Amino acid sequence: MQALMENNSISVDAKEKMSASLKRLLEEDILIVDSCYYFKREFMRYDDRYTNKTGNECFGNRLIIEFENRNNEKGLLFYLKQGIAFSNMVARKLEDFNENFTLILMIFDKTSIVFRFHKTRGGEEWLIPDIEQYAEPFFVIDVLSSPEAHGF
Fewest beta carbons less than 10 Å away: which of 13, 48, 83, 132? Predict the structure, then answer.
């Protein structure tokens, strides 16, 4: 993966040609249940097995983009760009909620991209602090609301 990224420019615009299924998901409303944010279509129910709201959102907002051709480097780059473009567009959608911080997370492995998002909450973390312990590379995008939204 690192070689793929080093050998290719990954300048991604949110207007990158996106699959129809991702575009449809972007058109969905964001549903708020018990102060948790979900894609409306993906929401099944709030699951009280999770110890916090962040875990609930990460489970409920898991979207897997599987690769059709795993052996083609250009194909891998295409899906990586799709995932980044999708993340950027979701970030823009979440900015409308004027929350303090919202995190968008995209994990990339050799067979798929896994996209998750959750509201950033004090005292709750989904990722372990030592990112070196992860075997697969990933991207984290913090979406920060404007200070004006909070009266600063």
Answer: 132
